[in-house]
Amino acid sequence: MSPPTGAGSVRPFGRLHTIEEARGILARLVRGPVEGVETVPLQSATGRVLAADLIATEDVPAFARCAMDGFALRSLDVAGASTSTPMQLRSVGTITAGAAAPLPHIDAGQCVEVATGAPLPPGADCVLMIEQAQQPAPGVVVVGSPLRAGTHVGSAGEDLRAGALALASGTVLAPARLGVLAALGHQTVAVRRRPVALVLPTGDEVAPPGSSRGAHQVYDINSTTLTSLLQQHGCVVHRQSVASDDEESLRAAMHCLVPGGQSRADLLVLSGGTSVGRKDLLAHLLASHGVIHFHGLAIKPGKPMLCGSLGSTLVLAMPGYPTSCLMTAYALALPAVRTLAGLPPREQGMVTLPLADQVRALPDKTQLLPVSIAGGTAHLTFRGSGAITSLSHADGFIEVPSGSSTVEAGSLVRIQCF
Prior knowledge:
With 418 residues, this protein is α+β, with helices and mostly antiparallel strands. The chain contains seven helices and 28 strands. The protein has a six-stranded mixed sheet with strand order 7-4-6-5-9-8, with no helix packed on it. Strands 16-13-17-21-20-18 form a six-stranded mixed sheet, sandwiched between helices. Strands 19, 22, 24, 25, 26 and 28 form a six-stranded mixed sheet that branches. A hairpin with a 2-residue loop joins strand 8 and strand 9 (140-143). Helix 1 (19-29) packs parallel to helix 6 (322-340) and helix 3 (222-232) runs parallel beside helix 6. The protein is elongated. The protein starts with 18 loop residues before the first helix and ends with a strand. The relative contact order is 0.14.
């Protein structure tokens, strides 16, 4: 098959976009989460994003309850109690957690033995801890100090009041937040639909793990790393088979995403085929069937990254080298992915530490450098764009802006943790 005009030849990059420009383009393209709501069981909702405000439908707890094992009584009855003039009360029953109504009413001079979590009986307004009670005879409780009303008592609605906002729309459901839903009696929760991503590796030199690798092939690393990253940050991921470096194979692999295709995806993430060599056809194909927003960045590693659209599907094409692929995914793709998933920015993953190594800035490129953290210091781990161990040994990465300066050892650097 003869290559069409514009494909099959070496085509140099045009103007390289800065990393700031690329981030701005992605921010304009991806303004909010994908549409759609799903209802899922609480046990399947960890990490999902709440689709609507959750309003408390009842008080939590719904009743006043005892916060200690001991005796529920009236504070008025022991107001004058002291070690020299103790007050004697008569125990008129026992109440355990989960006790059914009706409960005994506490009258003057009476008390009731209670367990932690038991409902506070009517008439009582405080609890004497079991350790502070003296019981000289069965049914007799001696109190040697006064108690204030409310001592060791949890009031109704202490945790949540009926009608109050329990969780706001957009909240990421962590264990304690799921506990709020359970406390209100919910078995299911409405969450935002997760974005659907297709991961498509390309390249004649790439073999699927588990297959017979050719003498000069490498196993496909990028599908695994990209799938893991996308799943970790809220996507449903479908992996495609490796596409060969010819236009027919690539067009067929991308066909399901163009109008009239067989399935729908919110995001297509490719690896390989993004540079400007004779077999790098992705830019030509995307320009023919969709829109290119940028191609070529002033960063290292990651220069050949490409961003475009096929209809309503965002296309992010990463360089083929494993470190370059995953590094650009962390630095550029991940913020867009989290926006699609309705997840907040990852500012909580930023730390500032001294750098153990000197780094010379490049005059025309921002450097994305993986680092490990040990002993409160950041250590460079970069071994080359093709070495996945550059990142497997790293805890995060730093960005070194282009320029003529040198980042000296001991300088504080801001680390985006993985």
